[in-house]
Amino acid sequence: MQVFSKSNNKNYIIDMLCGRSAKKNLIRIYRTMFSNKVAKKSSWKGLRNYFKISNLNFTLKGIQETVSGQYQLTNKEFEDVTKEWFRQGGQRLNRQQE
Fold it and tell me: Counting Cβ atoms within 10 Å, is residue 77 exposed (0-12), middle (13-18) or buried (19+)?
């Protein structure tokens, strides 16, 4: 799946993954783009030798701009939802494997 292209519609696929609120939209986007295995091994700041999600500047900026175009979303709200989704990756993976 190509998330961003060089055309004017670079956020087309992300636009298709809409939800009823900014939070639900972000969760659907993350579910589509990242597996629970990736989420389990990731964190916002990369603590405990995890992958540092905040380094994905281009990807996160594209997601944030797309969602902000549809809903009112502050930087703090975006970061909080993103941190929470990746923090819960281990729980989702355990439930998925049961």
Answer: middle
Give the global pTM: 0.78
Tokens of 33: 């783009």
43 neighbors 87 (Cβ within 8 angstroms): yes
Spatial contact of 79 and 44, defined as CB atoms under 8 Å apart: yes
Average pLDDT over residues 16-29: 82
CA atoms of 83 and 42, how far apart (whole Å):
10
Closest CA to 16 of 37, 34, 32, 40: 32
Which tens digits make up the pLDDT trace of 26-84? 999 899 889 999 999 999 999 999 999 999 999 899 889 888 888 899 999 999 999 99
Q: CA 49, CA 63: separation in Å to the nearest integer?
A: 25
